[in-house]
Amino acid sequence: MTDDIRASLNLRPIINVSGTMTSLGASISPPEVVRAVAAVLPQFVEIDALQKQASQVIARLCGAEAGFVTASCSAGISVAVAGAMTGSDLAAIERLPDTTGLKNEVLILSGHMVAYGAPVAQGIALTGAKVVPVGQATSARRYHLEGAITERTAAAVYVVSHHTVQYGLIPLDEFCAVCNARGMPVIVDAASEYDLKGFLAQGAAVALYSAHKFLGGPTAGIVAGRKDLVRAAYLQNGGVGRGMKVGKEGMVGTIAALEAWERRDHDGIRARETEYLDLWLRTLADRPGVTATRVPDPTHNPLDRIRVEIDPAQAHITAWDLADALASGPQPVIVRDHEIEHGYFYMDPCNLHPGQEHVVAARLSEELGKARASNEVIATPLERRRNRREETARTWPD
Ligand SMILES: *Cc1c(COP(=O)(O)O)cnc(C)c1O
User: Fold this and answer.
1) Which atom of ligand 1 is nearest to the CA of 20?
2) How far apart are CA 309 and CA 143, in angstroms?
3) Centre of ligand 1 from the C-alpha of residue 279, in Å
4) Where exactly are the structural domains of the chain?
5) Domain 31-263 grouped into CATH 3.40.640.10
6) pLDDT digit string (tens) for 207-247?
7) 20 CA to middle of ligand 1, Å?
8) Domain 15-22+265-394's class?
9) Residue 210 Cα: closest atom of ligand 1
10) Which numbered atom of ligand 1 lies nearest the CA of 220?
11) Residues 6+ apart with CB under 8 A from 233
């Protein structure tokens, strides 16, 4: 890559095989998005008219009645929940987070009370809503949901994500059937899901997406769904949503990203990603203490990853020390390490510039070769690594 802006900002030229991570800059935007953002920045626009354009594109791609662009998917959770409580009552919108006189209970399965960098429940609660957990972490049936609904229930939030418990929970279609029979809107957090139409089609009233994840848009969130609820959520820009507003560049970039998604050669991209995975599997084959396996995406996005399992006795390094070694040096490779305590990490192929797959393969060979040649097993206590990360966060910007 020539004219890489990162050098002038004193930033490391990282290669991301971790996935669409906010902490790494989320995703790589296609040229159409870059051009659209650059084209609108020097112009004035009428924001409500631009959001109306966004509504039409979102409606087409998501099979929704209407939609708009907000700051992020987590902003979408807050404004959609707020909208479900206030409707289009402008006075109520200005009063939040005081919910006096409004239905203010919001249901969420206990197994969905996860964090994506911040807690989902916090995104609900900061509107003034009362979070009502449904069922147990690994068990939520129809009767749990029916029993949790009261005359104060405003909405239910359902999270579709690899972060959530993946068994024992009521499926979305049944969840929607129960809620819809009681006239209660279901808001689906589908931040990272490729399926733009399926959740509304299963009966959800609102579906929320991140523009900056698989879509490759600028940092923004997409709110799609039933027109009255989308409007009520949009009106929160005059209330608790003000700090979550998105600018013209976010709106135009999201429209461009959705249109690019519509035209994208999805099979071609899948084939290219498969080539990367095959290369890495070949690189990792027949190495002592290394087991590499292709695994499908847990929520059925059309995406496979490689799981790299490390036996420290044979490889002479732990999975986390290997992850840290890969992330160091002049060509840092960042792997997907959120399950690293099990002794494995993942490699995600969807955020690479062409050619970087070879750098990744070379870095794997280099670090595994170095470790194998070492006389001692490189094994930092996991707790020390965790503490170091927390310390780094706590002492920022030092
Ligand atoms: C990433 C993510 C979010 C947050 O999305 P942002 O657009 O970055 O705010 C919310 N929910 C889930 C399930 C996510 O994966």
Assistant:
1) 1
2) 40
3) 30
4) 15-22+265-394, 31-263
5) yes
6) 999 999 999 999 999 999 999 999 999 999 999 999 999 99
7) 10
8) alpha beta
9) 7
10) 7
11) 68, 70, 76, 79, 80, 82, 83, 206, 223, 241
